[in-house]
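Sequence and structure are kept together here, with a separate record for every protein. An example record follows, reproduced without changes.
>
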Amino acid sequence: MPVSAPAREVSATSSCRVLTDRDGRVVDACDSTTRLLNSSWRGLEGRVLPLFVAQDRSHVLSQMEVASRGHQVIIHTILRPKERQPRQAHITIQRVDAHRFAELEWVIELF
């Protein structure tokens, strides 16, 4: 995936999709994810996505475990994009099976 264009402010309500492994390491992300988290693709690849969580990270980690067992989870938390103010987030995490490996699909909406 190519490095995205220079980061710019995201709209008042923005959403994106990102795939992580079961440990939360980013394996794929769309351009809107790089803008939303204020990072390039190279900056996100392999990074542990829960590190962007600014509130109750342990809850997010436990919900990732639930999602990895095949249950969709919905989390309301605070995300902190790189070098930006924290934002309220609505995150849906679900397991997807891809390339013989189970991955987690995150749909993140910032408000």
About this structure: The chain is about 20% helix and 35% strand.
